[in-house]
Design goal:
Oligomer: heterodimer
CATH architecture of chain A: 3-Layer(aba) Sandwich
Low-confidence stretches of chain A: none
Largest sheet of chain A: 8 strands, mixed
Number of domains of chain A: 1
Helix content of chain B: 25-40%
Distance between the termini of chain B: 31 Å
Order of helices and strands of chain B: EEEHEEHEHHHHHEHEHEEHHHEEH
CATH topology of chain A: Rossmann fold
Low-confidence stretches of chain B: none
Mean pLDDT of chain A: 86
CATH superfamily of chain A: P-loop containing nucleotide triphosphate hydrolases
CATH class of chain A: Alpha Beta
Number of strands of chain B: 12
Largest interface: A-B, 47 and 43 residues
Number of helices of chain A: 9
CATH class of chain B: Alpha Beta
Helix content of chain A: 25-40%
Number of strands of chain A: 11
Chain lengths: ~325, ~325
Amino acid sequence: MISLNELVATYTTVRGSVRAVDGVDLSIPEGNIVGIAGESGCGKTTLLKVIYGDLTYPLALEQGSVNYGFADGAGREVDSASIQAYWFQRISYIPQSSMSSLNPVIRIRKQFVDFLEPKANKDDTLDRVRQFIQQLDLPPEALDAYPHQLSGGMRQRMMVALATFFQPDIILADEPTTALDVVVQKGILLLLLKLQRQMGNTILFVSHDMGVHYQISHRMIIMYAAKVVEYGESPDVFSAPLHPYTRMLIESLPNIGDDHLRQGVSGRPPSLWDDLRGCRFAARCPLATELCRQEEPPLVEHRPNHFAACHYAGDVIPTLELPA
Amino acid sequence: MKTILKTDDLHKVYRLGGFINRVRINALDKVNLHVQSDEPVIISLVGESGSGKTTLAKVMLRLIAPNDGQAIVNDQVVAGKGAKTDKKTFMSMVQPIFQNPFEAFSNYRTVDTYLLRTAMKVSGAKGAEAEDLVEEALVAVGMRYADVRGKYPNQFSGGELQRVSVARALIPKPSIIIADEPVSMIDASLRMNVINLFLKLKEGTRTSFLYITHDLATAYYISDYIAVMYRGTIVEFGNARAILSDPQHPYTQLLLGSVATMGQKWEEADIAMQDMEATEFVAEGCRFRHRCPLAEQICADVRPAATLLPDGREVYCHIVEREMERI
């Protein structure tokens, strides 16, 4: 179980600090693929960075803590300040545009043993790596190549291999397939699903593509303007979303073979610099009332395991039709 | 009927590498597209990266010259052999919209200067006349001149700024707008605003679009015609709805089967991921044969020609050709 306790993460800028993640409080059970969706600038990547413990200037964790559900050698709970010691062993990160994240001037095999302890047997590990990457349809010789000698899809699979080889408990993936073609994307997503099923680890998966989330996520977190607005089991979120933003996000996307007219959401997300009052989606929400503009809705469990931050979630919305 | 868009054996070769290890890549290999209509149409060009979609757009926009063949827009040869159209006429006929609106506009200039310059330089309007043209174009995309006057790009959201670039492209009243991945940088909730705008403009200002994308769902949503490209060649071309609901070429089938859609989960078939190298661009025969489950010897030897199907689409596949002959 990963618990995120009242996380507030800020970026320091010349204009002062801005809250990119503002009060995220939820717990994620083990062995799930959790999808995180939302618009650019809503805090998806920042949330991953906080969970990874990659808190370097200008990013800072102003408030709250992360519990990973395991303890260190001395029996203390590991938190976001001490997680660095477990990078790649118990928690790994597939960064955005990970295709270009491999070091271009050293061979890939060296990057695999980079984070091993000095006394560990490197040859032994590399032999196991050679075995492992064949599961990912990569030839063993690919390990001796420089990154530019591999195609984009191969580099991406190499990053997946790097992130999964030590069978970490938690894998954080930030838009791992965005730059790829759909055919390669499908291959990598199915691969990730297969590995997750074998290892039973928890994957936090950021993507702005709701279709991708539908395919692989067990649970969904929907973020809007630094807040979590909806969190629940994927089938529930996709079939009966509680928050109007989630609904509009899902309904705005066209599908092949479906001739319905689709509408985008008008307006734009609020600037995080503004003095934000009430529900942050109120300005774009067709159902907003005075209450929404004044009072911020808390993230409440409206149905079992299905949370939403909307004053009217659960009771009024299902009977209201969104204007076309 | 008017020729909206036609390419005639359009060919473009990129040469990579140095003197010794030179590689030739046929980015466009004898591309033939032909759309005739009296009504404005939206033509989608889909394919993976490296399929030549952007090269085709660049040739149509005269940003690069083709090695062979010609491109015709609105009954006039605009690029390649025999292109005589002068720059001003060309720019008032063909206008671009680019992928990232934040890169298309400079951060140090207000966006209305781009609009006014286009009105003055391309449409030849002066003073108040130019402002009227700008206002008219902005109204067509659902904005007002007052919304953009004196504003810099960072004061808009991606969707709004993309609307402004559509408005800019509309000022000379072009017969076709070439939009290269116009929504891939825009957030999902705002994407449909731009897509619906294209549909509206097709009816309202009677502008045709060449919509270049890798997103098959939006292509299905707005297009009349679709051309599927693979490694510099067209593999299937015709009515968008017909092709996307019943693809005939094995590549189109693979592409459609790989789209992550809502509503139907993928089956966990064995994941085959071959990796293609630059050699595919110069290969003889069908380019797709290495990945094609149906490939035969003929596919390696002879390049498939277009087979015309009863619904008017063209499929470049030996297997489909044989099927048709049997019927």
